[in-house]
Every structure is written in structure tokens, then in C-alpha cells.
Amino acid sequence: MNTEKIPDIIIGRLPIYLRALQRMAEAGNHTTSSKELGERVGISAAQIRKDISQFGEFGKQGSGYRISYLIEKLSEILKVDRIWDVVVVGAGDMGHALANYPGFINRGFQIVMVFDNDPAKIGQKIGKFIIQDAAEMVEKIRQAGIQIAMLTAPASAAQEVTNQLVKAGVRAILNYAPISLNVPENVKVQHIDPATHLQKMTYYL
Amino acid sequence: MNTEKIPDIIIGRLPIYLRALQRMAEAGNHTTSSKELGERVGISAAQIRKDISQFGEFGKQGSGYRISYLIEKLSEILKVDRIWDVVVVGAGDMGHALANYPGFINRGFQIVMVFDNDPAKIGQKIGKFIIQDAAEMVEKIRQAGIQIAMLTAPASAAQEVTNQLVKAGVRAILNYAPISLNVPENVKVQHIDPATHLQKMTYYL
Fold first, then answer.
1. Cβ–Cβ contacts within 10 Å for residue A46, how many?
2. How many CA atoms are closer than 13 Å to the CA of B86, on its beta-carbon side?
3. Interface residue of A199, A204, A205 to substitute, partner B, most B CBs within 10 Å
4. How far apart are CA A71 and CA B33, in angstroms?
5. Which of A145, A168, B21, B88 could form a disulfide with B114 if both were Cys (CB 3.0 to 4.6 A apart)?
6. pLDDT digit string (tens) for B11-26?
7. How many helices, marked H, and strands, marked E, lie in chain A?
């Protein structure tokens, strides 16, 4: 299996496949086809076969994919066959929503720290976490060796917080602020933006 | 311009291009290339040229794309050259975050109503909205002719709320609940899920 040169665009689709497969497994299904999976995720069967075949031979001609095996393999490829510690920066509405989000279970992630710079929030509880002082963020993240952050700071503060996260050793940032973040080449950013998702549907209205 | 048979996967990438172009415009840029745009969004220049050429000839060989023109055309194609009214269902943390989200401006959307079924929340303010009784939701949405909803209800209630939204005439749902929704063929669902976005980055760690 040579995963050295898999295009980003294919890697970006694998989590979508993985989520659909996990839901099929939860629903009690054991096998699926590229056609069925494609209908679930809105991607052609041919594309799915091509994407998955980049990593080896996971299905059998005619009998489709064994769901549990494909989940195992995709989880390995995406490195979510383990649990990653994640910090949340910003304890506003979105920080609260994330701290209480039930959707991280079995997906490879757990929130372990929440930071904010508002003295009125520091020390308060958010879900099961105590909000910690953002002034101590760099040191605490570095000590814990955490590589992933979810950034819910306001747009005006987001770049400065990002700089600190990078300094702390964070290499993957999920950005909820409606701005572009500047990061070094070795840091990944994913932007979560409801407007972009809505725009994927208006075409069909 | 024949947009009848554009694959969903291409339509799904256009909002990503549009967001990047709008940010370039805000930064004062006037022209761009498929190479530059590709580096911004993590998609190959060849793929971008191919995607955009589905809709006509928007760029000139050698001189690239005029940003304002491409923004205008992509907005037209995606039908976000107008403002769509949107309802939020669920006035929890995520509902609050959406009601206060500053990122809808110039993206084609405005929230106009927020609903919840919790008597303690109904009548309270959320951002600039009064939380309305979910029992009146179907009638109010139908009367207003609203086609788009953001669903932040808990997973246990999400399918039932979805059924009501469909009954009310909603045809596009942005789903924040960590479950799959069953909808008729003519209704689109987009799922916003932080775990999936995080999984797009762990591969690189």
C-alpha cells in the first residue's frame, strides 16, 4: 500500500465514506457496494471504487465490500484507529456546543481541555470541563503534546490564537471563525462554515 | 450553458471556490489563477479548471480569472445572488451560535425565525430573535414560504423535526445532529459534523 502520494481531495472524501459505513454497521448491515455507498454520500460508484482502490484491494468483484473490514482499513489510513486528544479554544456558544457534542464517540477524538481568556468564564464549568485560562494555553498544550485544536474564538482574535496554537505544537486546527487563517506549511486547517454547506444545496432549489 | 447534468460532486466544490474568491476580493485582489485558487482550497489546478469550465468560459488562457466576474457567475449558478430566508430549529448552544454567527453576511442567507419546543425557552431572546413555539413551526414556515432550515435539535428528536420541516415545505436542511436523516428524494440534507472534518486532518499528523 503506497499512501505517499494520495491527493488531498481523495483523503478528504474518506471520512465521508467512513461515517456512512459506520452508520450502516450501526444499522446492522454487514456488506455494501460502491453503488449503495455512493447513493448514501452523493458520490458516483465509479469514483468511490477509484478512491478506495488507491489503498489496496478492499472489495471483491461482485460481492462488494465487507463493512467492518472497510471501516477498519479506512480508520487505519485516516489514523483514527486511536483516540486523539483535542483542545477547544473559546468557551462561547460554539465552545459549549462542542464540549457537549455527543458525536465524537467512536470517531477517534476526545476533548481534554477548554480555554478562554475571559476572566468571567475562567474556572466555570462547560460540559464536564473547567474552563482554563488562555494565558496558560501554550504551555499546557505543549506539555500534554496535543496536536489538534478546535478554534471557536471570535474572528478578531482567531489569527492571534492560531499563532499561539502553532507555537504550542498544534498541527491540525478546526476553524469555526469566519476568516482565513495563516499557518505554516506543516499545519492543516479545516474550516467549518454553515454558509458554505447551505450553498451546496441552493443550486437544487 | 447547460447545467442540467452537472455532478453533485462538482456542485459541492463550487461554494469552496466561491468562499476563497470572496476572501481574495476582500484582500484587494482582482485576478487569480487556477493554480493560486487550487493552493488556497487544496484542490488541483487541473480539477478547478475542469470544474469551472462545465459552466462556460470564465477565464482566459494565460491571464487567469477575473475574481469579481467569477464570484458573480458562481453566485448565479449556486443561486446565492439573492438572500434566502432560513429557520433555525433548536435553541440550544448550537442554535445560539448560529443566531449570532457573523458569517452569513454576503453569502446569500439570513436567519428569520428560531424555534424550540422547551416552554422555558419559548419567548426568550436569542441574538436578535424571539424563540418561537415549535408547535407553530409547520404553519409559520409554510406561510412564509421558507425552504431552508438549520436543524440543531438533539439526535433523539431530529428525525421527527425533519418530518415536520418537510411537511412545512422545507427542501434543504443543514443537519447538526449526529444521525442520518431520512428525507424524500426532493429534499437535500447537508451534515455538519466536526468529527468528519477532524478526520480529514489526522491522515497528515
1. 11
2. 28
3. A199
4. 38
5. B88
6. 999 999 999 999 999 9
7. 8, 10
